Structure formats: C-alpha cells, structure tokens
Amino acid sequence: MNKVNVGIIGYGVVGKGTVDTLVQNKETIRLKTGIEINLMGVADLAFKGKSPLPFTQITATDGMELINNPDIHIIVELIGGYDHSKRFITAAINNGKHIVTANKALLAVHGKEIFTLAKEKGVEVEFEASVGGGIPIIKVIKEDLVANNISEINAIINGTANYILSCMTNEGQDYALVLKDAQKLGYAEANPSFDVDGIDSAHKITLLSSIAFGTWVDFNKVYTEGITRISAVDIDFAKELGCTIKLLAIAKKNGDEIEVRVHPTMIPNHYQLASVNGVFNAVQIHGDIVGNTLHYGRGAGGMPTGSAITSDIVNIARNIVNKTIDRVPALGFEQPLEERYRMKSIKDVVSSFYMRFMAADLPGVLSSIAGILAKNNISIRSALQRGLQPKDENVPLVFLTHETTARQIDSAVKEIDNMDLVSDKTVIIRVEGIE
Amino acid sequence: MNKVNVGIIGYGVVGKGTVDTLVQNKETIRLKTGIEINLMGVADLAFKGKSPLPFTQITATDGMELINNPDIHIIVELIGGYDHSKRFITAAINNGKHIVTANKALLAVHGKEIFTLAKEKGVEVEFEASVGGGIPIIKVIKEDLVANNISEINAIINGTANYILSCMTNEGQDYALVLKDAQKLGYAEANPSFDVDGIDSAHKITLLSSIAFGTWVDFNKVYTEGITRISAVDIDFAKELGCTIKLLAIAKKNGDEIEVRVHPTMIPNHYQLASVNGVFNAVQIHGDIVGNTLHYGRGAGGMPTGSAITSDIVNIARNIVNKTIDRVPALGFEQPLEERYRMKSIKDVVSSFYMRFMAADLPGVLSSIAGILAKNNISIRSALQRGLQPKDENVPLVFLTHETTARQIDSAVKEIDNMDLVSDKTVIIRVEGIE
What we know:
homodimer, 3 domains, 12-stranded mixed beta sheet, 6-stranded parallel beta sheet, 18 strands, elongated
C-alpha cells in the first residue's frame, strides 16, 4: 500500500472541512486511488494546550513543526493572508514539500515568486480550491480544455457579493440592509471589503486568466470595482430592462491584447449567469474548439473547499507514487507566453453602459444630458424616466448606451455631473451581452 | 521535444473535428504541454482512391494499417457502432496501443471486456468524449471529485432529444412535426431511434454511473424510456404545473442499492436542468462532500467532441512522456466494488407521477379514477381538468401524485385503462423534485 503523508496548517472553516473530508472519506479515496492519504499532522495557533484531533499523529501550534518533519510529503496551507502563509509556503518548498493551498490572495500577488521557487526545488504547488470552492475549474482549464485557445472567461466567483446582490434583487432591499443580514447569517465578514469591493474576485480572475491565457496577469492592473454603490433603484431599472446585476469577473483575450476586470455588470436575464443565485458560483469559459462551457457549484464553505483541496492532495499523491513531477505545468503552460500580451486599459474596454442621473424634473434636462452624450459620440440605445415623483424632488433618468469606451463615458459624465440641474453623482454600470 | 504519434480511425463528423483540432491548435498544445502531438495517420473507408489529408504521413482505407504501424502510440477510434470498432480496439490493445474513443455504445455494452484486456496489456483506454461532448465530465468524476462518495447524477445527455423537447416546449408543436424539422436541420438522424428512444442516454448514464459508483453497471438493466409518447398537451399541462419535461438520465445510490434510469421527467422550472435548452447538455452531480455541481456545454458536434478527444490524447501523451501507466484507474476505482451493489427494479423506484387520462366529460368519472388510485394507496397531490372541449369528445384529466412506486401506478392504470369511460392509454410521466 502506497502511503502519502499530509500536514495541514490552519484549522479554520476550510481546515476543518479538509480534515473532515480526509478522515470521513479515507476509505473511499483508498478504494479509488490505491493510495492511503495519511493525515499526519495539523497545526493551528489555537491548539495551544489542547489536542482536539486524536486521529492525527501530530497536533502543533507552529506550522514549522510540520514543515520540518521529514516524513511529511505534502503541506496544505490554509491560514490565508499574505505574510505567515508566504513564510510557511516558502519554508515548505525549501524543505522539498509539495504544496496545496486555497490562498488566492497570496498566489495572485506573490504567485510568480512562489511558482518559480517550486519549479527550482522540484515540487508542485496546486490551488484548485483557490477559485470557485468545490467547482472543478483550475484542472478543467489546465487539462480538460487543453486543446483550446481560451479567449473569454465570465465568472461569478464571490459568494458573498452574489448573495447580497441576489437578496437585493429578490427582496428589493438596499445594499446596507442586506449586508447587515448577510453578516448576521455568516455570509459576510465583519469587514466585508475583500468581498464587496471586488478584491477577492480580482484575485481569483487573476489566477484563472493567468492559466487560461498562459501569461502571468498582473493583479495590480486588474480593474476592480465593487458592489457598494449599487442601490435598489438600479436593480429595479435593471429588471425593467430585462436584466440582472451581477458582480462579474471578466477576462478576454483578443489578438495580443488582454483585458481583466471585476465590476457590477448588467446581463440579460436569459444568460445562464443571471440565474446563478445566492452563495453559488459559476465560471463560463469560451474556448475556440469547445465553444462555451459552464461550471457551477458551491463557491465556498468548509466541505466544498475541502473537496477541491483533497483532489489536489490526491493529484500530488498520484504523482509521488508514479514518480513524476510537473506532469501538468503548474500554470497550465510549459512555456509561458509572458512577452506576448499587452494589458488593455479599462478606459479602452468597449461595452454598453447603464447610466443613472438624478436630475430636476424640468423641461430641457433630458435633452441637455442627451446633447452632452452626443457630443462625446455616445449613442443612446434607450432611455427610461420615472414620472410621478414627489414634487420638487429629483427624478432618476436612465440611459442605456450602445457600445462605447469608458473614456468617452467618463468625459461625458464629468460634464453632466457639473450641471446645476443634476444632483447626485451619476451611477454607471457596465452592460454585457445586449448588443 | 517529446513526440507522441496518433492514428485516427474514422473520418466522419467527429473524426474531422478531431483532425481539425489537432492541426489547428498543434502549436497551442505544444506550448501548454511541451509535447508534439503528431497526427501520423487517418483511416477511413471513404478515402478509397483519394488522399484528402496532405498533412498526415498516412491516409489509409483500413484501420489495421494504423494499428499495425509500430510508430503509432495512440489509436483514436471514431467509427462508432459495435462490431468493427470492437475489432479495431481489440487489435490495437493487443498491439500495445493506447486507445481514445467516443464510442459510448461499445463501452456500455462491451466495456468490461475491453477495460480488462487493456489492463492486462498495460495500455490505457480513455473516453471523455463518450459523454457530454465537450463538457469535461469523465475526468471530473474520476479526478476532481475523487474526495466524494457520489450518490446522484441527473443529466441531459442527448442533444437530439433535448432539442426536440425544447422546440415542443417553445413552439407548442407536436413530436412528429418537430422531429421532421430536426431531421431537416441535421439535429436528428434519419433513423432517430437511438436518440429519441433514450438508448444513447442509457449508454452514457451506464458509463457515468459506473465510474461514479465504482461498479460495472449492467446496461441491460438500465430502465430506458424515450420521448416519442410525449405530446403537446402534456407539455402544456407541465407548464401549468410550473414544470418542464426533459429526457433525464438519472443514477442514484442509496446504501447498497443503485438505480439507473432514462425517461422523460417533469422537473420544476426553477431547477437548473429545466433551463438547459436546444442541443446543449448538462450533468448535475451530487457528492457527499462537495454538494451539487453542474457541468454544462455542447454535448455533440465535431469540434466540441474533438476538444474532449484531444484532452484524452494529451492525457495519455503526458503519461507516455512521464512513463506512468494507469496513474488514474480507467474506471475511477483502483478496486471496483462489483459485489457491493444491487440494482433496484424500476417498479420499486419511488417518485411522484403525472398521469393523463382521456375520459368522457361525465359526472363520476373523476371520482371513479380517484377511487382506483386510492385503492392502490396512491395519494393525489393535485388534479387538473380541461373544460370547454368540443361536445362528445373525451377530455384530458390530469393527476399529480405524491411519491409512490411504479408498481402501484401500474396496478392502478391497468384497472383505469379498462374503464369504459376512459378512451386512450393513460400517459404517465415521472416527476422529480416537487416533494
């Protein structure tokens, strides 16, 4: 019987989910693989003075105890964040351990360095659980779609943001209220910034686009806009337009140009991504051979994420048993195409736009705004005006544009926001899939 | 540069799609894998006297020419059917060639024999393209979901049947008319039996359930019912009930019992599978760790299928280069669980049922039918009656039952169909997901 020893650092929600998976389904995995995945040790700062895991040989407070154990083959890093995780992963790689991690933040920001070190030291770094929780997507891109040039990814990959937008859509409530409920229910953190500001989605699309396009996408160049400015009135207008607002992570490749961006996006209701609700995630991929595929499931949670982490552990274990290394390149390409691509500025990205102005309900306002849009070469697809507002209050005025660039929109909005008859800052939401 | 030589037998739609994929994206695959996939030869009976593929070293009319070529590592069998394909595959395995095939019919019926021979001869047989066209699903079950005990699969895996049902639903037309259109458009074959009678779906769910449950499911025991008896009026009633009719392939495992079946199924509109339309396929899987995942894409066509075949070719090529064999067991389990499971009779499968009777519009008919159902311990969930039919014509009378067995339904229907006031044979459609 082949036996592979695993050490897990971090016993939070995902750590516990992974431990439970490995313990509960140890026999299933053995029957499938012929390999015993031996959970040799778990380390967590919180273990001080108690040993809650009687079934592991080692429970430690310091991850280094596992990293320095010569019998452990695979270190699973599940503490998240940048500093300690990087220190542990680097030390483990230097000790010749293979790595499994769910840490998208670390990989999106420091991945290049980590993958380079791993290659140098002849170990593998796997990260299926870093995007889409239990949804098989990293391996799908690297292996199942290997025959394809992937040109587009559209993804809902943050469960918290999607949960909030789904509630706002279903219940017509405003952002702040829904966020508070989500926090009570444990679907949003006390400090929800990573999720609602789009940063987590940006980390994830950085990884997805890097392996899909075969280049290292610079996280700092990923345009990132969150959902905090979306209000009930915009969701209402979206419905009137036959659309749904989702926080989409989008990556496109066109010739030598790539664009990678995260922002609230209005999409037609008949799009499959429009019906991905609650904490679920979905990733849609376009390959030149296969066309569109869609991959859907639970994007977070201890057990779904534990499922993905365990598939990585098994993958490495199979390589250990078969004495192969880097059978599949860590980032999907044997020869990365680093130099080939140019990152498009968000200002030059073309799409339709939803614009909501709050303006005085007076003659001439609509025509003034339309005039400014025309001057900036922005073509209007449709306009909606809500009548019957309380007297003297500003009314929402909505334009849906044909395809144009953010550069043109910005220039127009700058002028419009300076108009005396316009009160609030104009709300702008990109629209995909209507042209 | 590692080079792996491939020979393709069969140059139909899928053969051409595979050849096009390998030629068009040869450089992409090389950049991703570091391996040159060399399309060394293609064989097809139709090549007699002409050589339409100048870029391959060999074009042959007889597949044996490729099988007997000592330089070819992988034989791709794409002729379909049972006899010639089996002869070619067996000969190729005996010659030490690895096999890639899209032939679900052959594998569902003769798979045990073929996989046993392959294991004996130390070669691999891969079949990603046999189910769901371009959708990654075989590898997903075998590798990505390796941590899970899979307990349920619900799948739309026949594009022709789904296209016909989608058209019937969208256009309110009857089966025969839509079939004719589908044949004109090339979405259905001249003899559509394999597709519309559910046989193709049964082949595919045999393979999916075999690798998911770790046992060899006997194709002959898979309950198979097609869509030919579905009429516009049933689709209409389904709409009234908030449901959609789909040809589902279903596999469930419960303790030591498994059930595998293909039949038209009424599912609630909010189910994701209800919105899988046209020629698209989708496979929903339930694993004990990951929960539900859904995998969606084009289930047929030369290029999507070529994408899946190429991923198999690359997978084997990676194993050849890394000198590993059976790194992942062909059927997902190192130790098949053959003896463990019992196949449940379709008579004992529990579900809700839709029943449509055509009965005289006279007092007492509804109560008589309801009485017979009650006598058979069938509990009624709701009843629909269409009024305002032309005088003297029988009217459709619909009952939706609570969960019961087919055994009980059959017993009741036998009695009801004998009633003088009931004209046509009762239409019965299983309903899933409403209890």
